[in-house]
Structures are given as structure tokens and as C-alpha cells.
Amino acid sequence: MKETIFQMERYAEANNIPIIEIDSIKFIMKYIKLNDVKSVLEIGTAIGYSAILMANATPDVEITTIEKDEKRYKEAVKNVNSCELDKRIEVVYNDALKVNLAGHSYDLIFIDAAKGGYIKYFEKFCNYLNPGGVIITDNINFHGLVKNKSSIKSKNIQGIVDKIEKYKAFLDSNPDYITKYYDIGDGLSVSFKKNDEK
Ligand code: SAM
Per the confidence metrics, is the pTM higher than 0.85? Predict the structure, then answer.
């Protein structure tokens, strides 16, 4: 298991695949453990790094994770199998916005896919959240640039930062959720459904 995780880190670096920062995944693993999370939905698998680590938080948490890139999906399945976690991690190959999850619900939803889609993912997947559940989103600080916009030179990066700001405004004005922000890793938001706040 440790060897596979180490190999995934090297593979991600060599192939320019963004994976979660270690402090952020530690925070999520701790949340899973302390809150007895049994089911997780992850949007954005990449090669399965965060899914495998989340599955390691407790022996009974089950993960469904969605990836739309075929090569990454196949790599994720390979990694999940080599960690013998295929009974607790289901990797779905599809665009998250096209997946039908009718009949399923989750204690924790982790959004870690295209930043331009954050609002759409939240709007779609909040319908599958169990009472007392949370929605966690990664990259809320986007390399510190959300708080330091004047240093941005590229239009492309400016566009991403604008989208993250819109997402934060969406979260803050969402009447059904209370969102807390954490300067951990690349920045995490944790959205609790109102009346469900812990
Ligand atoms: N959670 C992973 C980890 O920490 O190991 C990293 C995920 S990476 C930041 C984002 C992934 O989301 C990419 O592999 C990308 O192909 C995938 N993605 C982007 N938009 C998507 C969508 N609409 N549906 C499914 N996957 C998507």
C-alpha cells in the first residue's frame, strides 16, 4: 500500500497530474474518522490518490469516485486494485455532470474536478447528501492567488480565480449551507447543511 502511494506521487509529478496536498487529505481523513463517515462521493478521481487515502481513514468507509479522462480512470482502477480496495472504492468513468446517482446518498461529498464546474457540481450533488453530511471542496485558495489577485499576469489564471471567487460567493449566499474556509493545503471549503451544523 505505502509503495503504491509513493509510486502514485511520483507518477503524478512525472505526468503533471494534480493531486491533493498532503495536509488537505490528512484533514479529510481526520474528518472521516472523527465523524464516522461511511460513504464518500468524490468528483475528480485523477489516478485514485485521494480516494485510496480516504479509504484508508477507516476500515468501513466506502468511496464512489468519478473521472472523465479515460487514461486517468484506467490508472486509478489499476491503483485501487493493487491496494486491494476494489470492494470499497468504485471508480466511475464518466463526466460527473452526466452520471445518474438515483437511489444513492453520501455522508461526505468531495469536489475536486474542473474549477469552472464547482457551482454546477455543488448544485447537482447536494441532492445526494445525507442529513448531517458535508460538502468539501479543494483548491479554494488556488496557489494563494485568490487572495493575491494583483500578482496574476495570465488571463487564463485570472479566469480560474474569478470562477473560484464566484463559487465562494455562491457558497456564502447559499441559504441552506454554512461554509467554513480552511487555509490548509491549497485551501478547503467545508459546507454544512443548515440545522445539520456540527
Ligand atoms: N482528487 C484527485 C486526487 O487528489 O488524487 C485529484 C483530482 S484532479 C485535481 C481533477 C480531476 O478531475 C482530473 O483528473 C480531471 O480529469 C477530472 N475532471 C474534471 N472535470 C470532470 C468532470 N466533469 N467529471 C469527472 N471528472 C472530471
Answer: yes
